[in-house]
Amino acid sequence: MIQRIDSITNFGIFKNYSWSGSPGMQDFKEKNILYGWNYSGKTTLSRIFSCLRDQTLHHDFPSGLFKLTSDQGSIDQSSLGSFPYKVAVFNAEYAKENLRWEYDEHINAIFFEVGDNAKITAQIEKLSLLIEGINGSSTVKGKKDKFQAAIDEYNRFETLYTQEAGRIKNDSFVSLIEFNKSHLRKIKDKVLTDLESHIIINKDELLTISKTVKVEEPKPPIEAVSFQTTFQQIVQAANEALLKVPSRSQVIAILDKNTSAYEWVKTGIGLHTKNDNCFFCGNEIGENRYKELVRYFENESSQLKLKITEVLKLIATEISMVDEFNMPSSINDFNDGFQEEFQKREATIIKESMKYNAILNKIGAALKKKSTEKIYSKIVGGFQETAVKPLLDSIERLQDLISKNNDSLIILRKR
After folding, report:
1. φ/ψ (deg, to 5) at 101
2. Which segments of 101-252 are extended strands (E)?
3. CA-CA-CA-CA torsion for 331, 332, 338, 339, nearest 10 degrees?
4. ∠ CA 193-187-170 to the nearest 5 degrees?
5. Terminal CA-to-CA distance of the chain, rounded, Å?
6. Do 323 and 335 form a contact (C-beta atoms < 8 A)?
7. Does residue 25 contact residue 36 with C-beta atoms inside 8 Å?
8. β-pairing verdict for 2-11 and 65-70
């Protein structure tokens, strides 16, 4: 029997304890009660007794030292194997390691059945037998045995679904989105009803889709492009002016042939009245001369020149609008998957813009020639309103690409 604990060092709360033998300190009896506040060392003492039980130091105190006195002599941490008595310890650690409230045949533990658990044990055993009758065991052939081939075939297809879903997720989506066999099943059922419409033959389209779904950081939406043309008005007015032949009433040859002189005198008429002195030469403008000039700028040729000037202004404005077209500033404005196509459509717009500007300049040149050289002759321009269509079509295709790029942002941000 253990009589006393002589010393404890580096063992939990006991840093340097020794038996003092002072009055009131008694040896252990056959039955002993140890009590004290929480964390006062009761469990630590039980672990010392566990060392005697296990014949090795407790794993929480590998450097601990202690010495005990028994009726067979002294023992310490270095001589645990020679302790002659069998020791049993029932503490919190024992309960944690050995007591279970749920049955498990693989655990060597004490199993407690209390309350409702005790009442349903028989039912559990009955259900276990039913399950065994279905699944079978080493001694019983189960009912599902005759279906095993079909089950194995089903499981094989389940594995294929899992593998294929994983391949699609890793290869097509670079694992950026969740995609499993349940997603694949839903897609399969939808695709098989109309397989042909779901096959992408165009390699460029397939590449665009592949790059799009791999975008990790979607870029901001791109502003829509637009071009408001006045080309129809320009063509109608230009063709009409080129074919117009004014009457030769009130002709002043120098003003008909010299545009600069025409513009200079036209401005001067607005600054003077009859009998004024000319701002340029200082001479008086006679009444007859003044009336002649007024009649000239009211005649058909002068009105035609004025109309031509207005059309030339429209052409200049149209060219400026083409040059200032709000093209996306960079290929990097687009998400990957749309960048290559943007380069192609941008090049087409630049090409069509140059052609369109050339047509506008050709119309302008014809109008200037009419105004300065052929004011009393017809010029067959034959300009067509459809000449702007290739540019408008290329702009529309670019806007379609921008819309697809922006629509892809909604899908990417929902991932």
Report:
1. -100, -5
2. 110-111
3. 40
4. 145
5. 72
6. no
7. no
8. antiparallel
CA atoms of 56 and 245, how far apart (whole Å)? 124
Taking the model in full, what pTM does it have? 0.44
Average pLDDT, the chain: 79
| Identity of the amino acid at 326 | N
Q: Which amino acid is at 224?
A: A
Give the position of tokens 């052939």. 141
Q: How far apart are CA 310 and CA 260, in angstroms?
A: 16
Q: Give the number of C-alpha atoms closer than 13 A to the C-alpha of residue 378, restricted to the C-beta side.
A: 5
Q: How many whole angstroms separate alpha carbon 48 and alpha carbon 71?
A: 18
Phi, psi of 351 (to 5 degrees): -65, -45
User: Helix (H, G, I), strand (E, B), or coil: what is residue 392?
Assistant: helix
User: pLDDT, tens digit, for every residue of 15-66?
Assistant: 898 887 777 788 888 888 888 888 788 888 888 898 899 889 888 888 889 9
Structure tokens at 221: 């939406």
What residues have CB less than 8 Å from 232, skipping those under 6 apart?
385
Tell me what pLDDT residue 365 has. Answer: 94
The radius of gyration of the chain from alpha carbons, rounded to an integer in Å, stands at 52
Helix or strand or coil: residue 227? coil
Closest CA to 301 of 270, 265, 257: 257
Break the chain down into helix, strand, coil percent, rounded to 5. Answer: 55, 5, 35
Residue the block writes with tokens 């290739």: 390
Q: Are 102 and 32 in contact (CB under 8 A)?
A: no
**Can you point out the beta strands (E) in 47-123?**
65-70, 73-76, 99-100, 110-111
pLDDT in tens, 335-374: 777 888 889 999 999 999 999 999 999 999 999 998 888 8
pLDDT, residue 386, reads: 94
What is the helix (H) or strand (E) element at residue 18, kind and residue range? Answer: strand 14-18
Q: Cα–Cα distance between 385 and 232 in angstroms, integer?
A: 5
